[in-house]
From TrEMBL:
Domain of life: Bacteria
Signal peptide start-end: 1-23
Name listed for the protein in its UniProt record: Cell wall hydrolase CwlJ, involved in spore germination
InterPro entries the UniProt entry points to: Cell_wall_hydrolase_SleB (IPR011105), SleB_dom1 (IPR042047)
Residue ranges occupied by any Cell wall hydrolase SleB domain in the UniProt entry: 100-209
Pfam families referenced in this protein's UniProt entry, alphabetically: Hydrolase_2 (PF07486)
UniProt source species: Pseudorhodobacter antarcticus
Amino acid sequence: MNVRLSWLGAAAMALALTGVAVAETSMSRSNNPTENLGALMGAERLALGAMPEAMLTHARPKEAATQVSYDRNWIAKQPTATGGDQFACLAKALYFEARGESIKGQFAVAEVILNRVDSRKYPNSVCGVVNQGAHRRNSCQFSYACDGRADRINEKAAYARVAKVARVMIDGAPRNLTKGATHFHTTSVRPNWARRFPNTAKIGTHLFYRQPS
């Protein structure tokens, strides 16, 4: 499908959801195609501005995101990563859970978080997933969120790197590394649930599992 048309479709959906009013742009108003295209593009920009980041993930073109290479040279060439709350939550989780892993390992952990977002068994946002249970000491899903330590980001270069991974994943990179994994743990531990969940991958010091249906 033409990328422009897919973006317009996403924009129309956003307008329906947000109730944003835009001017009518049907051909009955004008026979000038340039005028109509300009009106449509204006409506698209207005609608996309009202869309949450999770919806924009599906509206953005995927060509760049699908050409992922799991190495530092490729990551280094990506632009400085920025984004909203969901991006920030994913970048923070990757920093504390996987900054010492390879680039491939960082992408794998990002897959787990986004797979949980897509699952009905977990919160439907990145921030909801990574902060689940964080209000109780040692009861969270991701240990950094409730270990009682201050979440200080001291390694700026490492954070900049994982932030790029987070950006690429939120922008729609494929999730081919962990075969739908929703859990992971380091090779130094063996949680009880690991006996019941299918092991889907081993990447670096992490083992990945998919929660049974």
